[in-house]
Amino acid sequence: MKRLRQSKYHYTLSASHKPLLRVNAGETIVVETIDAFGGRIKTEKDLPTPDRIPLDQVNPQSGPIYIEEAEKGDALVIDIVDIVINSKYGVTAIVPDFGGLTRTDYTRLLNDPLLPITRICPIKNNLIQFSNQIFIPVNPMIGTIGVAPESEAIKSLTPGPHGGNMDCPDVCKSNKLMLPIFTKGAFLFLGDVHAAQGDGEISGVGIEVPAECTLKIDVIKEKFIDWPRIESNNYIMTVGSYRPLDDALRIAFAELIFWLEKEYNFDRLEAYQLCSQVAKIRVAQMVDPFYTIIAKFPKKFLSSSS
Amino acid sequence: MKRLRQSKYHYTLSASHKPLLRVNAGETIVVETIDAFGGRIKTEKDLPTPDRIPLDQVNPQSGPIYIEEAEKGDALVIDIVDIVINSKYGVTAIVPDFGGLTRTDYTRLLNDPLLPITRICPIKNNLIQFSNQIFIPVNPMIGTIGVAPESEAIKSLTPGPHGGNMDCPDVCKSNKLMLPIFTKGAFLFLGDVHAAQGDGEISGVGIEVPAECTLKIDVIKEKFIDWPRIESNNYIMTVGSYRPLDDALRIAFAELIFWLEKEYNFDRLEAYQLCSQVAKIRVAQMVDPFYTIIAKFPKKFLSSSS
Amino acid sequence: MKRLRQSKYHYTLSASHKPLLRVNAGETIVVETIDAFGGRIKTEKDLPTPDRIPLDQVNPQSGPIYIEEAEKGDALVIDIVDIVINSKYGVTAIVPDFGGLTRTDYTRLLNDPLLPITRICPIKNNLIQFSNQIFIPVNPMIGTIGVAPESEAIKSLTPGPHGGNMDCPDVCKSNKLMLPIFTKGAFLFLGDVHAAQGDGEISGVGIEVPAECTLKIDVIKEKFIDWPRIESNNYIMTVGSYRPLDDALRIAFAELIFWLEKEYNFDRLEAYQLCSQVAKIRVAQMVDPFYTIIAKFPKKFLSSSS
Amino acid sequence: MKRLRQSKYHYTLSASHKPLLRVNAGETIVVETIDAFGGRIKTEKDLPTPDRIPLDQVNPQSGPIYIEEAEKGDALVIDIVDIVINSKYGVTAIVPDFGGLTRTDYTRLLNDPLLPITRICPIKNNLIQFSNQIFIPVNPMIGTIGVAPESEAIKSLTPGPHGGNMDCPDVCKSNKLMLPIFTKGAFLFLGDVHAAQGDGEISGVGIEVPAECTLKIDVIKEKFIDWPRIESNNYIMTVGSYRPLDDALRIAFAELIFWLEKEYNFDRLEAYQLCSQVAKIRVAQMVDPFYTIIAKFPKKFLSSSS
């Protein structure tokens, strides 16, 4: 099984970076990732300030991985076989001017910023020790995973049609992620594993850990999708990322409804009406430059009425 | 047990309406509600157009119910004992210029409106027949429930600090709703029961039904809350309603964090960081004049670290 | 000339308040207004804190004025004949949790609030003395003016289709304001005069003054408009109020384009394209519960191409 | 005087493109630009559909121009000496799924798209003939002008801290634009000249023309600015681009207030309060992937009170 371990990481997703691993459709690989702070926070005295974590060195990405069969207009299918945490602790923090309940670079205000705080959380027996009394079950997910956009180079902090920093707990073991392919080779990047994360990732930071991600990579030829999709045992899901949340939600649902129409034989407005009764929504995060919403349709209702 | 049945309904929540039922704290009552279309849609030929459903006659409310002990600054506690659907069918519809994926009166565009559609869904054996093949489990909830605001009269279509049209599936049997009280007597209104509803209520319409709601009413004296709260077996929840979704979400989480700080002994920023790992979010609806978000904190983590 | 002077003011716009003046279409009247702080701030030591300015006593309104001919579906036309400032100074302030660049009750954050500041600005010779060196020309405008909504009672702090707290510098001497009429008698309210105000009213407060407003009142029968309109010598203007600004802007432009189509013989999409080349936009305010945008069309282009 | 004429244009702003012109600080140059449709629309039968105007070939940029003295942390100063229109007509259009009053790729809805329309407007004697009766004065502006971001490659359709597609009528003859410099050489790009444009560019399209832009290029060493600035005879201006408009406006005003504090000796909150009385706001555009707001401070008030 091929393994990707690298010493230098990327802060943009772009096809201009040199592939570090080349794989064929059907292969299973292991990718080592470091945490979103680049391993620079080791104790609670290491505060997440701009001098320690320069703005252009947030969220380091492993990759790019070049997939031989991948061409523009195909879909990349990633089975998440396993995510193994590679540390005895996770890091969470208050990063001033980052998070859902603070002024940020995007919602500029005259109030004083929050002060930085670092919290180191030991991980043992599948439990994260958040505090003396509070233990959170480990539930690892890949925070950032995406392909190179067609012509742009996009910061690893930003989610979009290419995937990227979606911070979605459904990108977890046993689930399948499907990404659009914009360039020959696809150029897959990943990083930013969280040992656990709540909906919205409201403080801006999960339980950040290094990890080993085992992924089975596949390509569906000539399957054009506009935005990422996820499948679990119980749901088909679409991902929309934009600002405000309203527009992220609209993207996710438009994609979900067109998917139901195209591949599951629903009438478009019937799908719209049915979603209104049975869909689930996850607010994945409301902290990154764009926000991410997951629209979920229960597989048990996947039989059209026509 | 007192029962409220009325022939004329209200389209605003206001203390200027005459109480139709007076109850004491501790009483359990039954309130009959009609559906959000006021029973005006009976067949699939009855389309939800402005001539059939005038804009000022949407979402009829039962009440007001006057609670003797209630005074400004107290909290109203409503145990939802039961919700019994009072019809053999439910109604859902495409209402032109209403819903999450269409131009509306609030997001005015030059695209043509969607065309109206009515769908009548038979309800039998706790199943809603959405189409020939698709059956949805009955899961009744009270779409609109709220008190009179202090000085305003607010449309029954609009949610806010007073509750109102929150369209939240957690306002269901066995859960407890807590509302701020702004005026002597509280003036409780309710209506708009849905036999089922997905997150976001994306088409703008659930499975609309008339119902009988059994509620145990209580008052906590001198307990000032700013926004509605909900409790289930597993979660404490706060409700935020505004536009865009971002600001509704911020309200819900600020309320949740202050609740954790005030009543559960958390440090404020500790609560913020913990929510980032364990909170759940429900997008209740993104279709009403304000949107509604529920921030949920799992009760199992309700023990502070200090 | 009839004059309205009153001792008790209103904090909601509603047809449930007793008319204090009855006028006929065509009459010119003088209305005395007090400042938005209700005259409670007289020195720079009087800070705008909730104990001094209770939340339910912000923005006192004179009126209601009952217009005899006014009926639902008519339009109310108000010629602003004059606005005379009734004080030797104006008040501006930093109100904590209010304003465009701070956390507010609508954008709830964990940052600390701004501290309250009061600034008293002497007014002399048509100049407002903002500081030792800075003098601002007096340019009075009526910040809040509106009619009773059909069934609601709306806080005087909130703008909407009924007008209300639009905080628009174009509501000034020599301009004409047109409001929809929702109820018999119209029930006109006004207050909140500013001696001067910038676009956006970014700190949330203009140069707040008491004033005497001379208004010529008229009614156009059976002229249904959805939102307020303003006319100056050079522009026809429409007003949209909502959140976020995007949706306020869409309302204003949809109203402007439909106006051009209906009354000035433009094709709808031609008007859309022409607005893209010649329209002006004013952000009236981004601080009230809803934000207000003015879309302006230069009168010199008021001749359709067809 | 150096002149830049090129045959191949760029659709991203990035330092990875090869400089086509190298200039020294202090030089004046002429840059030839083609119109935003790449000259592909010549008659009213040439509709702006995706087959004619592929999504990745919208808004072609001239450049990059390498400025020898420019280094990260400096400011680039561009005096707009002249903008000469290089065509006898301008093009405007309805582009389906693009514009402020339609569903778009960012506000995904189920309503049908608008239909494409092309309008060719002859330009003669400094007048644009919009229709038989309507003539619009020529008022040329550079719609897109920006530098390379530090690590990203950003689509020419998107505005940001680097400038880019701001679509701001204040980027016109005699005004001065200041841009942050993120990379050695700055890498200046420009294009998208409009013969005229209204506030908001509401249909998404101005009067699009090819042009010759005469620019005097300068560098201020070690002057770090976060966002673009503009100066005219009467105003200092800051540019904020994001979504929703609210956040673009907050960026522009935070930048303006910090500018007043840092360079004009104002106290921060004094500047905030003064802006509330005298600032002007231009909504440059509400149609691109991010929206652009200009906050303007009148130079006549540029003397602090301290």
Describe the structure.
Four copies of one chain form a homotetramer. The first copy, chain A, is mostly beta strands and 306 residues long. Chain A folds into two domains: 2-220, Sandwich (Jelly Rolls), CATH 2.60.120.580; 229-304, Endonuclease I-creI (Roll), CATH 3.10.28.20. Chain A has two helices and 21 strands. In chain A, the strands form four sheets. A nine-stranded mixed sheet of chain A has the order 1-4-17-6-15-18-19-21-20. In chain A, a hairpin with a 2-residue loop joins strand 13 and strand 14 (163-164). In chain A, helix 1 crosses helix 2 (268-278). The first copy, chain A, starts with a strand and ends in an 8-residue tail after the last strand. The model of chain A has no long low-confidence stretch (mean pLDDT 97).
Key terms:
2 domains; Endonuclease I-creI; 10% helix; Jelly Rolls; 2 helices; mainly beta; globular
| CATH fold description of the largest domain in chain A | Jelly Rolls
* Mean pLDDT across residues of chain A: 97
Structural class of chain A: mainly beta
Give Rg of chain A in angstroms: 19 Å
Task: Give a brief outline of the structure.
Four copies of one chain form a homotetramer. With 306 residues, chain A is mainly β. Chain A has helices spanning 245-263, 268-278, and strands spanning 2-4, 12-13, 21-23, 28-33, 62-67, 75-85, 89-94, 117-124, 127-129, 135-137, 141-147, 154-155, 159-160, 163-164, 176-180, 188-194, 211-220, 229-231, 235-242, 280-285, 291-298.
